[in-house]
Amino acid sequence: MTNTDIRPFRVDVPQSELDDLNRRLAATRWPDQLPGTEWTRGVPLGYLRELAEHWRTSYDWRVHEKQLNDLPQYVTEIDGATVHFVHVRSPEPGALPLVLTHGWPGSVVEFLDVLGPLTDPVAHGGDAADAFHVVIPSLPGFGFSGPTRDAGWDTRRIARALAELMARLGYERYGAQGGDFGALVSPDLGRVDGEHVVGVHVNAATVGFIPFGGVDEDTLTDVEKARWARQQKFQHEGNGYFQVQATRPQTIAYSLTDSPVGQLAWIVEKFKEWTHPATDLPEASVDRDRMLTNVMLYWLTGTAGSAARLYYENMHVGEWPYRTEVPTGVAAFAEDIPIRRYAEETNTITHWTDFDTGGHFAAMEAPGLLVGDVREFFRGLR
Question: Is-above-0.70 flag for pTM?
């Protein structure tokens, strides 16, 4: 019999694990680097050595552990998997439930700066009518939800699990928002639970929101041409991690699970390439210690391989998006690649905002803009 209990959860990392991390960082076996290559062939040696030393000597996990524990966290079992989630109810009685879904290489840490404004808009200079009860799950296989124990956890199955989670919480009407894989899971929630999902809002959207195959560039606007160019660049020189995780997640899991610097490099490269502007170091857009806390959720839980399996599942057993009539809003930030005319093929687009700033990790990079767009989209759907 499935245990449907929802149990309180508290992060409590043994000091022995932090000491082990420190030893591993100190004993790192570093590679060489060709002179003058900078970021062109991957994360530069000098940058990563300095960041790893900061991680070892200056970063204080206990500060960030407390920040997480200051939030109400829970776990429950759904479809054979542990689902960890943050659940913050708004002080406003008329608040709309909203499930926020991260992607890879993200975590619940992504949403720390939007949680307050979404749940308590009045305290943040907003309108009580825009309040949300917020649920932030760790995706099955990620962080405190991981690792998964069986195959088949693609985004559609995750959506079914999150629909069950919202039902267990007693939410009969709710919205969904997500970026990266969250921008696949959230529309899939509309597909599998459309009678309860009032609207879907996405950022960092790809599958279901971009063209596949060639396009007639003469028909594209300047903004669309820039997004198509970014998509093409990604396909030709930015998706090596994707191919590895979608084909051999078990192989890469050994090095990422054994080497904290390996895990750090694997993730920080994406923060560099996907934040805005991509020419700057990621710290220009995202707080350095917040980024390390995100890395810690992969390291401390040993879920590098389990998280990578989501790519394999979606490429091998994932179901292709089909048309959904659930109202859908898109926030397209400066480093994003969705193009509306292609998004409209499988989504009912009722709201679209193009931003000239912000990147892939919008909740961390431009929380005010993301919150504002989410509020605007859901105002007509409450």
Answer: yes
